[in-house]
Amino acid sequence: MTRTLIPPDGGYGWVIVFAGVLNNFLMVPLIQNVVLIFKDKMLEIDMTVTQMWFALNVHTSFIYITHLLNNLLLTRFGYRKVTLAGVSFVFCGLSMSSWIHNYLGFMLTFGFVTGIGVGLNASSCSLAIKSYFTTNQNKAIGLSMTLTALGPILMPQIISALIQNYHPDGVILILAAAQRRGSTLPSQPKVLTKTTWWKSEESINLESCYDIFEENESLETIELNEQTNNSDKMNSKSNGNCKSLGKDFQFEEHKIYKDPNFDINSLPWYKRYLYRVVGLLGLDICLNLRYVNILIGLSLVVLVEMNFVVLLPFLLFEYSLTISEIAAFLSVLGAADIVFRFLAPHVGDCLKQPARVMIILVLGVIIAARLALIYISHYPTILIIALILGCSKGLRVVYMSLIIPSYVPEQHLASALVIQIVLNSLMSLLGGYAIGITRTTTGSYIYCVILLDSLTALTIVMWSADILIKKCSRKKSKPSNVSTARAEEVY
Q: Please, what sign has the CA dihedral across residues 59, 120, 158, 389?
């Protein structure tokens, strides 16, 4: 009789839940909190705005780069070792950054070391929670999501209180200590049975891979797939069912592969190597221009959002707001964000639009709110803008999680996610440098916001043009008596 471990489905499993909550509670809003803490220190060590922005975007890029290795590391070492490695990196990075007093040291400690640690923790904690529960798994994940969602709301207030009593170096050491203390995961449950463990730490599937990507598209959601699965009923047209895609959006293999007389061995060695790399990495997906359009648009949205999160505290400091006022702004934004993630299905039911159209509408609202923010200095009105930005952000996060599985066939989904992560990493580095140059040249963060809004508008134009072209081509190619196409085929 085979004796294997089974999860306790409660009991000590709740310790795992709260350990993961504490870990994610501190990790999710980390970069925004560091801006609040280190803003003055960055000026003290004569770090230029370009250098500061580049270091913060190095942090983001290494989070994305680490995602590429997460699946392999979790399969090889398990979630406990990966989680412990992640929090150790974060602890060491934050601790060292507290006594580093130069640009290169800050980039290495916070940008490189801490970024790797946050990336390693992106999915290991959520996988640990899943592995300790069976019938109560939904309760455990729901509790984890709810408590973690309080991080962006409460952490700015906690940081504000700490800064009033401690030096910034002391505040960052306090955060480093909580990371080290609260994220230790215990050993496996010692219940033996002949029943196979429902989900071992080695069983990593495509769902967890997608969680990894969407989790740190913004580092703001835990188990977003569980949340968006509940939104299946919001709009069957916009939901991600790859099997139901119409023929108009199927990815076609390169014509040369369809030639029965084609022999790859007849090609020069470098072309053989190139074809094998393309096949191995699934890069043939890029032959579909519509997917490339969607990919670039998503990367621009991620780039803008990540940089706006970093830029926002500096912009508010430029308005001479106090740390407590900025913390209140961030808390209002975080609360509205969380509420509208849960209301997103109902908004979808009312508007009845596909995911990409919903994103276009939400991006339009975000552009207007950001423009209003740079022209309004009345604090109560600024809080109203925070509310609007939070509501829009919540809708954007949910609907963005639906776009890739809605438009990419299942056999190409893993390749699409990897390509998206790599592109996000590269664009984060380039975009961060561009934002820093803009701030240095103009002397104001207002022009940085205008630049970010311009990139957001570019995404709207790209996607709207693609939708219009698709609609026009369908009208020309099909007679009027043909039934209406599915939403994924047009939008």
A: positive
Q: Phi, psi at residue 184, to the nearest 5°?
A: -75, 120
Say how many C-beta atoms besides its own lie within 10 A of residue 460's C-beta: 18
What is the model's pTM?
0.74
* CA 208/CA 210 separation, integer angstroms: 5
Q: With a cut of 60, say whether residue 256 has pLDDT above it.
A: no
**Of residues 57, 116, 71, 179, the one with CA closest to residue 430:** 57
Q: pLDDT tens, 45-59?
A: 778 777 888 888 888
Asked if 403 and 467 touch (Cβ cutoff 8 Å), the reply is: no
Report the range out of 154-163, 204-213, 365-374 with the highest average pLDDT.
Answer: 365-374
Please count the CA atoms within 13 angstroms of the CA of 1 that sit on its side-chain side: 5
* Three-state secondary structure string covering the chain: CCCEECCCCCCCHHHHHHHHHHHHHHHCCHHHHHHHHHHHHHHHCCCCHHHHHHHHHHHHHHHHHHHHHHHHHHHHHCHHHHHHHHHHHHHHHHHHHHHCCCHHHHHHHHHHHHHHHHHHHHHHHHHHHHHCCCCCHHHHHHHHHHHHCCHHHHHHHHHHHHHCCCCHHHHHHHHHHHHHHHCCCCCCCCCEECCCCCCCCCCCCHHHHHHHHHHHHHCCCCCHHHHHHCCHHHCCCCCCCHHHCCHHHCCCCCHHHHCCCCCHHHCCHHHHHHHHHHHHHCHHHHHCHHHHHHHHHHHHHHHHHHHHHHHHHHHHHHCCCCHHHHHHHHHHHHHHHHHHHHHHHHHHHHHCCCHHHHHHHHHHHHHHHHHHHHHCCCHHHHHHHHHHHHHHHHHHHHHHHHHHHHHCCHHHHHHHHHHHHHHHHHHHHHHHHHHHHHHHHHCCCHHHHHHHHHHHHHHHHHHHHHHHHHHHHHHHHCCCCCCCCCHHHHC
Averaged pLDDT, 319-332:
91
